[in-house]
Amino acid sequence: MSRQVENEEALGAFKYCLERPTKKWIFAIIILLAIIVFGFYTFILQHIKGHVITGMRDYVVWGVYEVNFIFLLGISYSCAMLSCIFHLTRVLWGKTIMRSLELTAFISLIVAPVYILLCIGRIDRAHYLILHGRIQSPIIWDAIAIGTFIIFCFVYLYLNHVKDFARLRDLTSNANSPRWQRQLYKKLSLGFSFHPEQEKRINAARDILAAIIIPTAILAYSILAWLFGMNLRPGWNSSIIGPQFVLTAVYSGTAAVIILMWIYRKIFNLQKYFTDNHFYYLGYGLLLLTLFFGYFTFSDFITNWYNSQKNTAILLEKLLDFSQYGVHYLFSVVVTMFVTIFVIGIPKFRTVNSIFTVSVLILLGLWINRYLMIVPVLETPYVPISDVRPEYFKYSPTWVEWILTISGIATMILLMMIMTKLAPIIPVSALEEKRKFKLFGKFSF
Question: How many other CB atoms sit within 10 Å of the CB of residue 364?
Fold first, then answer.
């Protein structure tokens, strides 16, 4: 391919970054900022009045915040793992979706820890965790794992952007481009000039980081699972909770990237890059993950059901009772198992839009699954407290928790919009590597 054609393709992929923001884009940013500001006001209100304005009480010390933390952390770890697997195996069709995975991983990892901080009654003392934390505590393990993974994820994301930043630097080198834009891409590109030695070093660094991130993600999310598994509470004390957490994370991450691909394809007309085959391949992955998820869920349920302990029986009764959590449990089981098998497993119903719809349902079902893992368990303690008024042991999220949840989602969307404005969602450098591999006939599936 000639240099001229390469430049034309690069210009087309970078067009969205080089254009001035549209009125719709600015309006969307304003709306998101308004939601985030209202969320910040709600946070200040919670800090002043305390957890009394939330649904968290003596029994249920965790609620929607903890659910969001676990859920987003799982999406982050799984997206990072999938991106690294695609990179190391040189799967060609995965090149175009790697940046979506990387951005989702990094942004989710930024927002997720905020929710765990919201569970702290005195957030002004959060720094004590670093100053006076004890290494014997599993919570410290989790904090170290998250901090380490943030560094790995950021460096990996940045290295994968350097080549495209260099392209943008070259495309904005003329006097017609704004000065701030020229200076920005000049600094972000780190002097990268596509020299073979530079290519060799940056590719080696990406390979090393990808190889490190995969086991780190598995270990980090397993540590979070062990925080629950080391507890004697029914519903948590399970020997398979670590693998179950990792599997559920990959399941939710795959569904999340399908949703993101569908949105970008609709907004930016990226049918050329996010093809129908991308959705079908990831849909088949969802189908396989559904079967594994169903197996782990059944294994966990059957062992708890056969357990004769009183607290375990009470917990299962809550999950199966339609006057308590039966509806939630049934919905979660249906959409995370049977709907996927029915829609994706039968060719007649398998389309791009149906795979997108199933992915939305899966994310909702998995969020409810995490909710049922937290709240009913905390409502079923080993040693009941003396005062058993319903408002003490029955959890119900308040508007404060929902507003802060929505604000977190708005923050993620805002960051995604800004980052895709700085660099294209389609990695041009990865597409050039894809052509090279096709030229030599390597990994061309």
Answer: 15
